Amino acid sequence: MLKREDELLDILQLIHSENVGPVTFYKLIETFGSPSAALSEAQNIRKIRLCPRSWAENELQKAQKTGVKLLAYDDPCYPANLKLIEDHPPLLYVLGESSLLQNENRLAIVGSRHASINGRKTASRIAYELSERGICIVSGMARGIDAAAHKGAMYACDRLGETIAVLGCGVDIIYPTENTDLYHQIAAQGCLISELPLCTMPQSTFFPRRNRIVAALGLGTLVVEATRRSGSLITARLAESFGRRIFAVPGSPADARAEGPNSLLKNGAILVESAADILRVLPKTVLNAPLSKTHPRQKALVFATNDANLTAQTTSSDIKIIDYLNHDGVYVDEIIRLSGLTPAEVALQLLELEMDGRIERQSGHKVALIK
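Predicted structure:
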């Protein structure tokens, strides 16, 4: 067995031992010097009951067979900003493009599971606009705002936009099941991560842990629709405690889903109506950073940091692309050619049609009206 595999087994065994969480894990490492040494000493600590080595070996084998990468806290590819929080996961399970974790230009978008149509469209549009400018969108793959943000991000950059989904279950578990297609799309185009063992089913206690990862990964967190007791507000509060920027989309006082964002705005969050409001306050070092080279077909993009540039690229045309669609499927390139619209304008209209449930994506870069 390779030395690195032995080290991963030590980490797996230690972090999944009884009464060993991330904070205790790092205290043991600090005290004894390494996971291997900590394991040797931990068996003498009365409160700790070591996880069987056989379980760790089986877990590593399952990950290797399913194409899941185990990313340890000491790996050079481990996200630098995640390591800044005290209880960062000692081990991340990663499915998909693990290189996305190296793109430090990330922003979290979260919100209500029971989002309005307008809320979902807003989340998708902002995610799309940010993704077009090299920002990787992070969310939790829940129904509602999370799903809309992931979809909007992946529509960008000729449908090569980057997104990271942080799961409150094993990375090999699809939850909710209605997001099955989204799960597979993110696995192919973005990446899915979790700190939980494979085959772990979702539980309510896992989601606050998931939220801290979402909050820590982003340069900031945008909240789109959330009630006062929403987990999205927990994510925002965590992000604030980590020194991240907090953004919120305002809503009607008559809508309970606006209570969360409106309360954040009262307490100093940055009001957001479009991606321009976010780009305007991000550090210049972020906006001038080189874009990810994950996808070889990705076009070189230029950051737009003012309202004029952003508006020029995202203004909708009077031309409606639905007139060019049918039930059998049409190539997106053909829609662009026939309509005379820019790829960005076509992508935004397709995004809205998909959010309305009027079209479906097909293989080969085609879209079709839903019968």
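Summary: Residues 290-317 have pLDDT under 50 and may be disordered.
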